[in-house]
Amino acid sequence: MGSRRSGLWLVYALGGGWGHLTRAAALARVARGPVRILTNSPYAGAVCARMPELDIVALNPELPAARAREETVRRVEASGAACLVVDTFPRGLGGELATLLPKLGAVRVLIHRDLNPDYIRQKGLEEFVGSSYDVVIRPGRAEAGSLAGLPQVRTTAPWLIRSAHELPSREAARRLLGLEERRCVLVNAAGNREEQEWYGSVTRALIGAREGVAVRCVAPVCPPGCPREAWLNYWPAMDLLPGVDAVVGGAGYNTVNECVACGVPLLTRAWPRKYDRQSLRAVGQAEACPTGIDEAVAAVRARLGGPARTEMRREFPNGAREAVEILESA
User: Fold this and answer.
1) What is the rounded CA–CA span in Å between residue 326 and residue 305?
2) What's the predicted TM-score (pTM) here?
3) DSSP labels for 17-34?
4) CATH class of 9-161+318-329
5) pLDDT more than 70, % of the chain
6) What's the DSSP call for residue 97?
7) CA–CA gap between residue 291 and residue 202 (Å, rounded)
8) DSSP 216
9) What is the pLDDT of residues 306-320, one digit of tens each?
10) Which residues share a beta bridge with 217?
11) Sequential DSSP letters for 245-281
12) Domains of the chain, residue spans
C-alpha cells in the first residue's frame, strides 16, 4: 500500500439498469479526486439531471454488441486513467476487457457484487480475476460470491447513494412523496420492463386496502395498471425512505441495502436474473412478498398492523467512503 492515489478514476459501470450506475455514482460523489463513469444505462440522463456535477459518459444502450465493445475499449484507452474500477463483470460486459486489462498501466480494481457461480465456473473467472486485478472490493458482506476467497479481496459496508447525514427528515421526505401525515407504502418498481405490470397491479390493489395508508409507486415510467396519481418519477429513491412505513420491491442491490440502512421493512419479490441471485441477497434482510396480487396485498396489510414509524434510523455506514480509502491506498 502506498500514498494517496491521484489521477482520474474511471468506473466501468456497463450492464444497464440502475444497479451499476448507482454504485458508480455513490463512489464518485464521495471521492476526493476526479472520477469518470462509463455507462450504458438508459437512466444516465436522470442521474445527470439530479447530480450534474458527476462526469458521466453515456454510451447508447441500443448500440450493437460489436460496436459497443469497440467504443468501450476506445473510451478506456483514451481516458488515461490512473485507476480502472470495473463493476461486477471482470471480463467486461462483452468480454472486451479480457485482452485490454494486461495492456493498461492503471491500477485495476474489481467491484465484486455477487455473481452466479455457474457463470464464474464457465468463464474461469477465479483464475482470471486473481491474475488480472490488483484489488477486489466486495461491497457488503451479503455479496458472498465465489471470488470472496481471493487474497486481494477487501470487504466494505454496502455502497449507498446517500450517507446518513444527507437524508431528509421524515417531514421533508413526505413532502417529496406529496403526503400529509399519513402512513405510506412505497412500491419501488426498479426492474425489467416485463416486471412493471406486476408492480403496477400491486400499487392499484394496495390503494384503499387499508384505511389511512397512502400508496406511492416510484419508477421512471408509470407502470401498466398503476394509477397516475400514485406514480412518482424520482431518483434516488433512498431520499423517500425516511417518509415511508414499508417498501414493496425486488431484491436488487440498491433496494435491499437502502432499506436495511434506513430500517424500513422491505417486502421483496426476488426476481430471476441471469447473473444476480436476488433470492440469496434477500435472505435475512427482507420479508418474502407473495407473487399473487391478493396475497401480496395481504402481506403488506399484515406488516402495517404494528405501530407507525416516527423516525428512521439515523446512523449507518456508507461503504463507498470505505472504498475511497482503499482506492487511494492501492
Assistant:
1) 44
2) 0.93
3) TTHHHHHHHHHHTT-SS-
4) alpha beta
5) 96
6) H
7) 10
8) E
9) 766 666 667 899 999
10) 187, 231
11) SEEEE---HHHHHHHHHHT--EEE-----SS--HHHH
12) 9-161+318-329, 168-303
